[in-house]
Amino acid sequence: MSVTATHKGGILALRNIEKTFAEDSKKLKVLDGISLEIGEEFVAILGPSGCGKTTLLRIIAGLEKPDSGVVEVQPAGARIGFIFQFPTLLPWMTVLENVALPLHVNGLSWSEAKEKARKYLTLVGLQSFEDFYPRELSGGMKQRVNVARALAIEPTILLMDEPFSALDPLTAETLRSEILDLWTWGVTTVRTIIMVTHSVDEAIFMADRIVVLTARPARVAGIVSVDIPRPRDRRSQEFQKLEDKVYELISA
Ligand SMILES: Nc1ncnc2c1ncn2[C@@H]1O[C@H](COP(=O)(O)OP(=O)(O)OP(=O)(O)O)[C@@H](O)[C@H]1O
Ligand SMILES: [Mg+2]
Fold first, then answer.
1. Rounded distance, CA 223 to CA 45, Å?
2. Would residue 219 count as lying in a domain?
3. Cis previous bond, 75, omega within 30
4. Residue 50 lies in a domain
């Protein structure tokens, strides 16, 4: 069983996405003709700070409109989960309620929503913390709740915006492995992951393909395939060769 084969059936196509933010007389061109075809795969999007990565994810999720260009999702209406760059748990709700809320909003009764939420909290190892409040959790646990909440809506596409950048290095590494396990075991509904990151190392460690963006306005500088079996050894020659290749694209 493998869900990591690349280019297996189109799931998402971005065609010539353009975005300029305009306020008063200020104009800021952020995305300059982004085109991508993404299948059942794990794609990392790598680019310098402020180049438009979050904007691109928000456009994919339908939270923001491009000025021109189209986003095509197959099948139409496929659900999209989003793990945001900044914490978004509601402090007055318990862990269970935080995960159940979007399900309830989407039409499940509270008890159905909670049942499904429990299933996904178990998947991220938080089954015994369902009655805790976000303030009672460590950073890593909070991020696990975010993962559970995104998975619980049973999305086809999972968008992750720098999901590990606020965590200490050890916690981040644990969570990376856990997400890769869920991904390779195929125990979730997710067929496509798109992860924004600043980290070349993280991109090569996790992704099937890496899309390198230029500085703002973002264009696709190049795409690198990572054909190394998982779990990947950062000290291997092939890993380091790819690092060189990605850094070349970044500095081009
Ligand atoms: N709603 C908005 N209105 C006006 N400008 C915006 C808006 N959202 C983003 N921007 C600007 O667009 C640019 C790209 O922002 P974005 O958040 O997409 O970058 P990013 O690549 O995710 O950055 P980082 O790596 O720091 O998270 C930034 O200069 C930002 O100031
Ligand atoms: Mg961002």
1. 9
2. yes
3. yes
4. yes
Which residue's CA lies nearest to atom 28 of ligand 1? Answer: 50
Ligand 1 binding pocket includes 28 (Cβ within 6 Å): yes
Both tokens of 27, joined, read 């104009």
| Structural domains counted in the chain | 1
Instruction: Find the DSSP H helices in 11-138.
Output: 53-60, 95-105, 110-123
Q: Which ligand is nearest to the CA of 161?
A: 2
Beta partners for residue 209, in sequence order: 43, 225
The amino acid occupying position 227 is D
Query: Residue 49: CB within 6 Å of ligand 1?
Result: yes
54 C-beta closer than 6 A to ligand 1: yes
Answer yes or no: is 226 within a domain.
yes
> CATH no. for residue 252?
3.40.50.300
pLDDT band for position 8 (cuts 50, 70, 90)? low
Report the separation in Å between the CA atom of 160 and the middle of ligand 1, taken as the mean of its atom positions: 16
Task: Residue 5: give the domain boundaries.
Answer: 1-77+193-252
| Ligand 1 site, residue 50, Cβ cutoff 6 A | yes
Residue 44 lies in a domain: yes
Instruction: Extract the tokens encoding 98.
Output: 């935080």
Structure confidence by residue, pLDDT tens digits, 116-169? 999 999 999 999 999 999 999 999 999 999 999 999 999 999 999 999 998 999
Q: Which ligand has an atom closest to residue 47 CA?
A: 1
